[in-house]
Design brief:
0% strand, mainly alpha, 108 residues, 5 helices
Amino acid sequence: MRRTGNRHFATGVLLITARIFVGVRQVGDAMRLAAAAGRLSAEIGEEPPPDEVKGLNRELDAAGIDPADEAHAAFRDAGRMLSFEAAIDEATRALQGIALVNDSGKPA
């Protein structure tokens, strides 16, 4: 996506990354990238992938997280401010960091 500048797949990637963040209990990161995906969807004039939206909502619900909770407002606001490039870079860095952690929760 970074090489081609194709933004059409970016919202799905950001939502998938947000789902991963929920799974590893990095809720602030999840809220930030979900908000960035929403802003990007509006910017390109396309709805976000419905399956990814539903999946994120399911995972938030299963984790007992209310995305509308005011505790997450700063993260949502920060996500809405991320540019396309910054959002993709943040998701990439975060996923690389998660990949470096082994099952015991310690750096690999």
